[in-house]
Amino acid sequence: MTGTRQALLGAAIELLDEGGPAAVTMREVGRRAEVSHNAPYKHFADKEHLLAEIAAAELRETATLLGQHGDDIAAAMRAVIELSLRRPQRFRLVYGPWRSAPGELAEAAASAWGALIGAVERAIRAGVLPPGEPARIANLLRALAHGAVELELGDHLAKSGDDADPAGLVDDLLSRLRG
């Protein structure tokens, strides 16, 4: 990756983290990267492709996290939740709507999904989770984790009165799945 391309991605990530996708403009990305306002277009077709590359990088990082915990599905899910809470704008970018998924984004999404299914399969083989359809269990975990992260980011879990937190909710689900 070229130095300019990396600088543009870094500037776009800063803008995204500060104000979400609406804060990312190609002109401001160029200004922050200290290049011309047209330079971003030499590296990215448009803003959507630039954001897709950021989202793909987040998904690749998620896939890596899911693969680092062996059969400890709770630790894997906690790591993903922690990443999501540290980077709320990137979390919302990744899991928000996409008009189209450029190839790299689609590949990264498939990789992250495969990593989650792999983590579930390892947990099933180790007896950490009961036998079942790995994709269905992965969808349960993903839905709970994503919903819990959104509730936490919106400060709704704190208002529930039961000291719920996203990782604790995933732990609760896992313990109930184990029986």
- Which CATH architecture of the largest domain? Orthogonal Bundle
Please identify the oligomeric state: single chain
Order of helices and strands: HHHHHHHHH
Number of helical segments with 4 or more residues: 9
Summarize the structure in words:
By secondary structure, this protein is mainly alpha-helical. The protein folds into two domains: 1-44, Homeodomain-like (Arc Repressor Mutant, subunit A, Orthogonal Bundle), CATH 1.10.10.60; 54-178, Tetracycline Repressor, domain 2, CATH 1.10.357.10. The chain has nine helices and no strands. It has helices at 3-19, 26-32, 39-43, 47-67, 73-86, 88-95, 103-125, 134-153, 166-178. Helix 4 crosses helix 6 (88-95) and helix 4 runs parallel beside helix 7. The protein is elongated and about 60 Å long. 32% of the residues are buried. The mean pLDDT is 94.
Write the layout of secondary structure elements.
Layout lengths: L2 H17 L6 H7 L6 H5 L3 H21 L5 H14 L1 H8 L7 H23 L8 H20 L12 H13 L1
Short description:
The chain contains nine helices and no strands. It is an all-alpha fold.
